[in-house]
Amino acid sequence: MHSIIHDIINSTETRVRELHNTESDEVLPFISAHDTARNTQNIINSILSKKQEGKAPIISEVKPASPSMKIRKIDPAEAKRIAMEMERAGAAAISVLTEPEFFEGSIENLRSVRENVALPVLRKDFIIDKAQFDEVKSDLILLIAGILNDKLEEFIQSARSKGFEPLVEVHNKEELLNALETSAKIIGINNRDLTTMKTDISTTEELIPLIKEHDSRTNTEHLIISESGVHTTDDVRRMISSGADAILIGTSIVKNSDIYNKTKELVDALETCTNDNEEEMI
Fold first, then answer.
1. What pLDDT is stored for residue 43 in this prediction?
2. pLDDT tens-digit profile of 221-231?
3. How far apart are CA 55 and CA 271, in angstroms?
4. Which pLDDT score, from 0 to 100, does residue 111 have?
């Protein structure tokens, strides 16, 4: 992995040690398996309903920064405003970064978003310890296959016992094959190569057929999310055409001065394509 990833993990380990040394100010209630299943269905329904409407299911992200770029300052009040604009524009779900050092995210931003939108909310962070499940409630939580490796299934089960539905993120074929051996229901294909940190959205196109073949052979069904490197309506159409059920987009939305219109432009990408085709026929 790239040195940046090692730096982020080292920083996360420091945060985890602090978690173990202090009591959490929020004790999350136990959530039954029935409630977890219901939450999962709500997430799936939110994505499928967008597709049925002819819209692109966009998981829009409240993203203050990345390791290579500061995008905008986002405090809880701004996180609330941004998320509400994303919801109004038709997003299928909201992702909130909570990693504080490299992405400048926060637990408080996530709380603010979840209290003010009706959409499913994804916590995006580097989860390496089960104590992190007790920090804050969300509907989905990111689990990175390449970091958890042989502990992935254990963390999936632990996340569900706490009421989260895991979004299991993979970056290559090896990680994907590992994820498909687990009980993961939602697979995120991150188009960023963690050795070079470069993005290539053809990664989604290369890995989706492996998921489809697995599902056909095992009579299972995974929800597929394409992540990273999607900026334009053409990119959105390309990812949906490749078989992605939804697309997670952060930078291109949050760096735009008009959050609502940028989100809506991406949500309406499939509709724009249909209109263009109709004009060509005329």
1. 83
2. 999 999 999 99
3. 7
4. 96
The domain locations on the chain are 3-281
User: 30: pLDDT confidence band, cut at 50, 70 and 90?
Assistant: low
Could you tell me which residues are beta bridge partners of residue 144? 169
Distance between CA atoms of residues 84 and 117, nearest Å: 6
122: three-class secondary structure by DSSP: strand
pTM of the model as a whole: 0.92
What mean pLDDT comes out for the span 49-72?
95
Q: What is the DSSP string of 14-75?
A: HHHHHHHHS--S--PPP--HHHHHHHHHHHHHHHHHHHHTT---EEEEE--EETTEE-----
Token output for 172: 């290559």
- Token pair, residue 35, equals 């409630």
CATH topology for 3-281 is TIM Barrel (3.20.20)
Q: Angle 213-215-221 (CA atoms, 0-180°, nearest 5)?
A: 145
In angstroms, the CA 85 to CA 254 distance is: 11
Burial class (CB in 10 A: 0-12, 13-18, 19+), 31: middle
Q: Are 92 and 59 in contact (CB under 8 A)?
A: yes
Measure Cα distances from 29 to 43, 57, 137 in Å: 20, 30, 9
C-alpha span between 182 and 163 (Å, rounded): 18
pLDDT at 271 over 90: no
